[in-house]
Amino acid sequence: MRAWRWLRENAVMIVGILALLYMLTPIFIIAIFSFNDPTGRYNFEWVGFTTQYWQHPFEITELTSALEVSIRLAFFTAIGATILGTLIAIALVRYQFFGRRAANLLIVIPMATPEVVIGASLLSFFLTLNIFELGFQTLLIAHIMFSVSFVVIVVRSRLIGFDRRLEEAAQDLGANAFTTFRKVTLPLIAPGVVSAALLSFALSIDDFVISNFNSGAEVTFPLYIFGANQRGIPVQVNVIATMLFALTVIAMLFVIIQQRRAEKAGEIRPEEETHEATVPITV
Amino acid sequence: MTSVRQRLVPYWLLAPGLIWLIVFFVIPMYYMGELSLKTGSIDTGYQLTWAFSNYTDAISQYSTQFFRAFYYAGVATLLCLLIGYPLAYAIAFKAGRWKNLMLFAVVAPFFTTYLIRTIAWKTILDDSSPVVSFLKTIHLVPQDGRVLATSAAVIAGLTYNFLPFMVLPLFAALERVDIRLLEAGKDLYASATQTFLRITLPITMPGIVAGVLLTFIPASGDYVNATFLGGTNQAMIGNVIQSKYLVVRDYSEAAALSFTLMAIILVALIVYIKFAGTEALMGDEEEAE
Question: pLDDT value at position B3?
Answer without folding.
Answer: 74
